[in-house]
Amino acid sequence: MKTKLLHDGENKTFALVFDQGDEALSGLTEFARQKKLGASHFTGIGGFQKVVLGYFELSKKDYKRIPMNEQVEVLSLIGDIALEEGEPKIHVHVVVGTSTGAAHGGHLLEAQVRPTLEVIVTESPRHLHREFDPASGLALLRL
User: Fold this and answer.
1) pTM to 2 decimal places
2) What is the pLDDT of residues 40-80, one digit of tens each?
3) DSSP per residue, the chain
């Protein structure tokens, strides 16, 4: 993955370009850790050679894993970064398109990039925090 600082004002903006074979979620998490990001949002486009989507089943308080072992286009990737117990926590949703034009979406659990993934990250000067919510089983933003 290559990165570039695009704007260094009160709200920093970064471009991230993932290479073929990179794991998107772990790469984004490591970038957030290195840059000490704690209140960011991001968008992206590109492609995956395989991806695992997640659908959160509230009754089970866990994600149903939906693997897609085929080349797909990333039609929309959107998410945020907040702190959970002092560490960056990535929350990202994605819509991918297949060769038939079908769209599939959900929470991004795993993704192997092919041929590229382009992500724009914007950081705000204040941090957001996530706390575990026992009722839902999720780490939710607390303002």
Assistant:
1) 0.90
2) 999 999 999 999 999 999 999 999 999 999 999 999 999 99
3) -EEEEEEESSSEEEEEEEPTT-BHHHHHHHHHHHHT--EEEEEEEEEEEEEEEEEEETTTTEEEEEEE-S-EEEEEEEEEEEEETTEEEEEEEEEEE-TTS-EEEEEEEEEEEEEEEEEEEEE-SS--EEEEETTTTEEEEE-
- Taken in order of first residue, the domains within the chain and their CATH numbers are 2-136 (3.30.1330.80)
**Which amino acid is located at 108 in the chain?**
L
Closest CA to 37 of 72, 89, 74: 89
